[in-house]
Structure to design on (414 residues):
């Protein structure tokens, strides 16, 4: 380990108590996406105290730039929490407060260091794809362009001129400290409205058209389609009947089927989404029911950059044994970091130290030494290594971004 990295790691250890105190404060301040106003204030308060300048990005996000010149490494930190399952209130049940905490610890450790490049630390809002009516309102007002924070930042030019992207996420993997190279699936969002004709179900059912029958046929059709998916592609489709007109003596005139289609690769995702979309449409038509399929982009699959992950693992090995590091796990989850991985060399590593279910009310941070202190070291160590051994995806970025905005984010028919 070189002298600078040793010094940076020592700073993080020396700041350990404050890092953990900040992390607890952030965990106790869960806010939904694009509503992270108090989290934003806490971050600014800390940056002001350090005299570190920042700029606003994507409504509730913040950008801190340290160092100068090439290479330019972006470090992402999600900020948003989730609603509690039971009753009211919110909770950081995806552990994003730990990412915000790690990013602050990284800034604190690097702010007085001589840097052979630029690190852009980006506090990123709205990772969870929820609360979409509120976000649509923000979009209608022109306050954000897209419902996901990273998609909004990509469109807003935050990653123009960036060479590569680092991020981390809490992991529930047992008996280890880290995971590296894990795959996140991508997903496409479908909502299908079936509109029939209501009629007296006893006196004149023949005068009606049953929308619920079309919805049920569509769900059956999608279930049969599952034979068409290669298990290697990890395609996952779980349609739900989210609305249905329901009175026993009236022919149902309205039903809504919603589903995500998930897959490991872009190719498999788009092929599966095309099949499912056609099935949802034609099953309605087969029943002579007016059918409207809405298809929207979710997130792309996360394709990890192996070159950067080799550096990430080297840094993990400074903090953990080989046996404490899991590699190339397949998660059924998705993240908007996947979209970035389609544009730039991108990685996301996992760190343990949490318990309970992700997105569940029993989620808790149980090993603060691992969850709060080791991730900023892995990030800092990898940033310093990337300054010496750069990995750049700048070439062709503009063309990839233009195609991404048109073909992916522009693919909504809503
Ligand atoms: Zn989550
Ligand atoms: Zn998450």
């Amino acid at each position: 380990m070189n002298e600078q990295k040793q010094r940076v790691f020592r700073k993080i250890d020396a700041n350990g108590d404050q890092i953990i105190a900040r992390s607890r404060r952030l965990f106790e301040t869960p806010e939904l996406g694009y509503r992270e106003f108090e989290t934003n204030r806490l971050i600014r308060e800390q940056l002001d105290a350090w005299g570190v300048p920042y700029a606003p990005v994507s409504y509730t996000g913040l950008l801190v730039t340290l160092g100068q010149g090439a290479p330019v490494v972006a470090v992402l930190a999600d900020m948003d929490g989730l609603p509690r399952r039971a009753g009211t209130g919110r909770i950081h049940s995806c552990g994003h407060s730990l990412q915000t905490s790690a990013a602050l610890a990284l800034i604190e450790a690097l702010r007085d260091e001589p840097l052979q490049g630029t690190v852009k630390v980006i506090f990123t809002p709205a990772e969870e794809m929820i609360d979409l009516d509120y976000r649509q309102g923000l979009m209608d007002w022109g306050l954000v362009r897209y419902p996901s924070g990273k998609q909004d930042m990509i469109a807003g030019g935050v990653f123009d001129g960036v060479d590569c992207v680092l991020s981390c996420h809490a992991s529930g993997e047992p008996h280890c400290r880290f995971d590296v190279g894990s795959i996140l699936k991508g997903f496409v969002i479908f909502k299908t409205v079936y509109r029939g004709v209501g009629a007296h179900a006893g006196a004149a059912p023949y005068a009606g058209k049953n929308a619920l029958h079309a919805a049920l046929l569509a769900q059956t059709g999608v279930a049969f389609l599952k034979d068409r998916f290669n298990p290697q592609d990890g395609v996952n489709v779980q349609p739900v009947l989210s609305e249905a007109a329901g009175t026993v003596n009236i022919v149902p005139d309205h039903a809504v089927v919603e589903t995500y289609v998930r897959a490991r690769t872009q190719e498999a995702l788009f092929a599966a989404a095309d099949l499912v979309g056609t099935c949802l449409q034609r099953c309605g038509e087969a029943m002579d029911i007016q059918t409207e399929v809405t298809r929207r982009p979710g997130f792309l699959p996360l394709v990890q950059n192996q070159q950067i992950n080799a550096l990430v693992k080297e840094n993990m090995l400074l903090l953990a044994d080989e046996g404490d590091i899991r590699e190339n796990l397949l998660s059924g989850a998705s993240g908007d970091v996947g979209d970035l991985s389609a544009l730039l060399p991108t990685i996301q590593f996992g760190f343990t130290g949490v318990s309970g279910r992700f997105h569940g009310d029993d989620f808790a941070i149980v090993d603060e030494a691992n969850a709060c202190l080791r991730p900023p070291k892995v990030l800092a160590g990898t940033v310093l290594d990337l300054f010496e051994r750069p990995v750049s995806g700048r070439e062709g970025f503009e063309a990839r971004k233009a195609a991404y905005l048109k073909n992916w984010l522009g693919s909504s028919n809503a």
